[in-house]
Structure formats: C-alpha cells, structure tokens
C-alpha cells in the first residue's frame, strides 16, 4: 500500500458517496499523473484502475463515517499505488467468475489484469482496496519532485 519509502508525489481526496464522484476523481488523477511526466498509456491504465476501485466502493459499500469515500494515489520510483477506502460492506471485494450474460462484475477483473498486484485491507469499519501498477525503466522519466494538491 502507500507505505513505500520512495514515494515522490501523492494525493488524497475525499469524494461524496455518489456516482458523479467517479468522473471527478478520474479527471483529477489524469491531470495530476500526466503533470508528473508519466506516459499517457500508464496514466490511462492507472485512471481506469482507480475508477473501477471507486465504482465498486460506490456500488457495494457504505461511505466512511463522514459520508464520503477516500481516494489516494501515490507515485513512487517504480510505480503508481492506488487506494480507495470506504466504510465496508457485507461482503469482501473479490474477482467474480466471468459470465457472458452478466451486466456487471468485471471491475476487479480489470483491476487484476492491469495491476501488478492488488488486495483488500480491512481495519475496523473501514475497507481499503488497493492496486499497484509498476513502471518499467523506459516509462519512468519523472519530472522534478513536487507535491500534488490535496
């Protein structure tokens, strides 16, 4: 998760427990990750993973005690770490078997396929679903260290 000692830039935002939050979080992550000098394809994958994590939280989980969802991303030397923290749900997030006729259930499969690793951490009433997307040496041409707005 976001405990990597080599984090060079990070951002955290609290978003309303509403479907409109997905577009706002996507737009913010997209612009801030591009501003860090990441290749557009890496940014697009990261933003897609983040939106799937947030969409899952909004669909299946309760908000945090303050009525919002916490969205966090961090750029480290070797990758991007993404987290979405909510107020928990009746079931633990998991990848579902694919069904050609299903209208949904593909979100965490997308996260699994685009991420180097992902997982779930439950602490008290909070559940955090996290994902890491590693960068290769060619992709990592970071701009000088700067903090993202929070």
Structure report:
The protein is α+β, with helices and mostly antiparallel strands. It contains 3 helices and 5 strands; from the N terminus they run βααββαββ. It has helices at residues 20-35, 40-60, 107-114; strands spanning 7-16, 68-76, 79-86, 117-123, 126-134. Strands 1-2-3-5-4 form a 5-stranded antiparallel sheet. Helix 1 (20-35) runs antiparallel to helix 2 and helix 2 (40-60) runs antiparallel to helix 3. The longest helix has 21 residues, at 40-60.
- Poorly predicted residue ranges: 137-150
Helical content (DSSP H or I, runs of 4+): 25-40%
The number of helical elements comes to 3
* Strand proportion: 25-35%
Distance between the termini: 18 Å
Q: Which strand order does the major sheet show?
A: 1-2-3-5-4
Helix/strand order: EHHEEHEE
Query: Radius of gyration from the CA trace?
Result: 15 Å
Could you say which structural class the secondary elements and strand pairing correspond to?
Answer: alpha+beta
- Largest sheet properties: 5 strands, antiparallel
Mean pLDDT: 82
How many beta strands in the DSSP annotation?
Answer: 5
**Outline type:** globular
Question: Top keywords for this entry?
Answer:
3 helices, disordered C terminus, 150 residues
What would a concise description of this structure say?
This protein has helices at about 20-35, 40-60, 105-115; strands at about 5-15, 70-75, 80-85, 115-125, 125-135. The protein is about 30% helix and about 30% strand. The longest helix is centred in the middle third of the chain and has 21 residues, at about 40-60.
């Amino acid at each position: 998760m976001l405990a990597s000692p080599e984090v060079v830039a990070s951002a955290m935002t609290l978003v309303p427990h509403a479907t409109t939050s997905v577009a706002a979080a996507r737009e913010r992550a997209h612009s801030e990750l591009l501003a860090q000098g990441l290749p557009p394809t890496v940014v697009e994958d990261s933003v897609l993973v983040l939106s799937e994590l947030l969409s899952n939280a909004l669909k299946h989980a309760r908000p945090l005690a303050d009525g919002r969802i916490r969205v966090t991303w961090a750029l480290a030397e070797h990758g991007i770490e993404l987290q979405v923290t909510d107020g928990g749900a009746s079931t633990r997030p998991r990848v579902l078997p694919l069904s050609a006729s299903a209208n949904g259930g593909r979100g965490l499969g997308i996260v699994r396929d685009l991420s180097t690793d992902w997982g779930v951490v439950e602490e008290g009433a909070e559940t955090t679903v996290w994902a890491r997307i590693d960068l290769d040496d060619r992709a990592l041409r970071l701009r000088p260290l700067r903090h993202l707005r929070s």
